[in-house]
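Notes to self, Short-chain dehydrogenase/reductase 3:
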Amino acid sequence: MAATISDDPLAKNLLNDEDLTASSDTESREPQPVFDSFDLDIVVKVLSKTIFSPFFVLFLPVTFLSQVPSTHPAFIISVAWTTFICFIDIWNHVDKVYRCRGTWLFAPEKLKWGKQIVLITGGGSGIGALLAETLAIRNISVVVLTKEPPKYESENENISTYVCDVSDYKAVEAVSKRIQKEVGDPTIIVNNAGVVKGKLLLDLTEEDVQNTFGANTLAHFWVLKAFLPAMLRAGEGHIVTMSSVLGLVGAAQMTDYCASKAALISLNQCLRFELDNRYKTPSIRTTLLLPSFVQTALFSKTHLPDSRIMRFLCPPIQPHVIVKEIISALDARESRVIRLPFYTQAARFMGDGMGLVPSWLRDILQRVSVFSNARFWMDSLVSRRAGAVMSAWQADVIASNN
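result:
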């Protein structure tokens, strides 16, 4: 059955009603599903399943050998390419085995979801709300921490909502005791709460900076201090940290946001070292997310360039894609670093600390990046595709319910 955003209170909450109002200068255009959905990530996905797939390239030398002699350049090149792709695949496999302290031949046992209690901060809207609903539909116990009472009260009895300002250590400490008593000890923590101001450095007030670092950075420390001890006693668990690619490369008008997200990258790395080497609990997994622009209310004041080339190279991410990646990492019981979309892979080489990219090239890449070309409005604006994105979220939730 077809549904609209106005029919679903969850969709309304995930992206505020006022955010659905497009800017007055936005021209209407007919939807073009094929072109609008075609981007660099689709190309990369196709290539990864074909000429960059070890299984696929293994057939190339055999195919050429059946048609040309072994001294033919085509056969030699195919052997070299196959060797290179297989080497990269083995390299990645060794890295995953080491990172997850697994075995060489067998993947870790899949997560037993029925025994899990998932704690989600910032679960009252956006990615957090969608993740909570998705997990609850699968009959998983979910605990949501939200600063304000949600406009939409979930009807799913698997979701327990607690109003708590996670930037306040005493508030987190108090609510943690209630959760442990009423629900149990969380086995999975998703630190998702975050804010963005979109102001120039000199326009930021003291309250703005404190609010940004409180929600984006300090909240992670307070939640971990409250709930990590129970994980250490159990010897297993999973901690998901929602950072941003802007923690690796800066952007104008987002100084406080970028700095707060950069701190989370270091936090995740240090936490991983402590779990492995000090607490001796490698079975407690850590997943770090480094997404680019996600179409949620958090960035509703961001107006992105709408040229076709920018939509192809730097596509915005739909929230259900992030949710899918989180669930995949949890289900596989693997520690991961998730970078989305594909162009964010370049960010790992662009930081000042790496020194792998010349300054002139880094500046060019940053100037053409989606965030450097974004404009922050004090009105509530969304990109012209927000309505279509919300329909996709809603369709996923409705389909899951059915």
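- Residues 1-31, 376-402 have pLDDT under 50 and may be disordered.
- DSSP finds 14 helices and nine strands in the chain.
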